[in-house]
Design goal:
alpha/beta; Aspartate Aminotransferase, domain 2; four-stranded mixed beta sheet; 15 strands
């Protein structure tokens, strides 16, 4: 006999399916890339965050192979016991130098980094001010911190200033994605820093989708933000960097505090050292990767020009590799995604609750591994209605 709680779960699953919001995992065979085998079908993938094509880059693969003989597979312990390998230490130092901050700390995932940083910097006497389009991990971190959580309309700095001015909190933290993952637009870094300085707040910027891509590869920080002691910067390392994990860069005392207080860093086994060795090579590739970035920018221009005047949808405003095609209706977005898949083009349909109701979209993500022919093929298929 089925118990009541399971019955409610089953009803919830049925409701998701009826509203075209059910998600299913696809199975990848082989390496990540622009052309992949998913569920046994060879497709051109426009849904990976591997923006520079480094996930299967031979130099990174070789770095991992070489590290295996020196460090094995597992870290064996938490960083604060015996899990902190020389490769971790070397990567943190190299990352801090690369992004122009005094020190850095390597976390196993971006989600863990956001949980660790926000909860370590604030407690119940603090207040978090978050953009309404922030990633779920930043929302969860704010809620778990015990601080007051105040959200402001997307990039609405006038509303944010009013909230900061009214706050009586002992500690304040402004937190925002640097590139917003579902819209592809960016945050006004220096304008946020102005507010942080005016109201004595920390500024925490999650650059999951800008690191490796924007500017010279160092991400979306301005020079002023690099020099500011109140700016804490996060870069995800499983996207453009092609590996895994996340690094937080900040003032040395901030990093020392995180080592002591960030529970998602303290109380988990360290990531495999071979990943840190691969990340060291990834940094070298990113630093020397202007040709990749130039090609990627050319693909963005090609896509936007090619889809101008599309009859049933329009690209949202974005100069990044994230190019969302607004459809509106969940069912229509799913149908278009499925039609493209039949043509060998993998483009995901993004629906509520990931995006607001009525703004379902195809989230096209471009990579330096794509060719101009790949993008032309997608443009042709979209003009044909999928």
């Amino acid at each position: 006999m089925t118990h009541a709680a399971l019955t409610r779960l089953q009803g919830g699953l049925a409701a998701l399916q009826a509203d075209h919001r059910e998600r299913r995992r696809r199975v990848l065979d082989g390496t990540q890339g622009a052309h992949v085998t998913i569920d046994g079908q060879r497709v051109v993938s426009f849904c990976s965050n591997d923006y520079l094509g480094l996930a299967a880059d031979p130099a990174l693969v070789q770095a991992a192979h070489a590290a295996l003989d020196e460090c094995g597979v597992g870290a064996g312990a938490a960083h604060l016991i015996t899990g902190h390998h020389r490769f971790h230490e070397d990567f943190e130092a190299a990352f801090a130098r690369f992004v122009g901050k005094p020190a850095a700390l390597l976390f196993s995932t971006g989600y863990m980094a956001n949980l660790g940083v926000v909860t370590a910097l604030l407690g119940r006497h603090g207040e978090v001010f978050g953009d309404k389009l922030n990633h779920a991990s930043l929302v969860d971190a704010a809620q778990l911190s015990g601080a007051t959580f105040t959200r402001y309309r997307h990039n609405d700095l006038a509303q944010l200033e009013g909230q900061l001015a009214a706050s009586k909190a002992q500690d304040k933290l402004i937190v925002a994605d640097l590139v917003f993952s579902m819209d592809g637009d960016t945050v006004p870094v220096d304008a946020l820093l102005d507010l942080a300085e005016r109201y004595d707040a920390w500024l925490y910027l999650d650059d999951a989708h800008g690191f490796g891509v924007l500017n010279d590869g160092r991400g979306g920080l301005t020079e002023r933000a690099r020099a500011s002691d109140r700016v804490v910067y996060l870069a995800t390392l499983g996207k453009a960097a092609g590996v895994a994990g996340a690094a937080v860069a900040a003032h040395q005392d901030v990093i020392d505090w995180l080592i002591q207080k960030a529970r998602s860093y303290m109380y988990t086994t360290a990531s495999p050292p071979l990943l840190a060795a691969s990340l060291l090579e990834s940094l070298r590739q990113i630093a020397a990767g202007e040709a990749r970035r130039a090609h990627l920018r050319s693909l963005v221009v090609q896509l936007r020009e090619g889809l101008a005047g599309l009859k049933y949808g329009a690209l949202m405003s974005s100069g990044t590799p994230i190019q969302p095609l607004l459809i509106g209706n969940n069912a229509a977005a799913v149908r278009l995604s499925q039609s493209l898949l039949q043509r060998g083009l993998l483009v995901p349909a993004i629906r509520t609750p990931t995006v607001p109701a009525g703004t379902a979209r195809l989230r096209i993500t471009l990579s330096a591994a794509h060719s101009a022919d790949d993008v032309a093929r997608l443009v042709t298929a979209l003009h044909a209605g999928g």
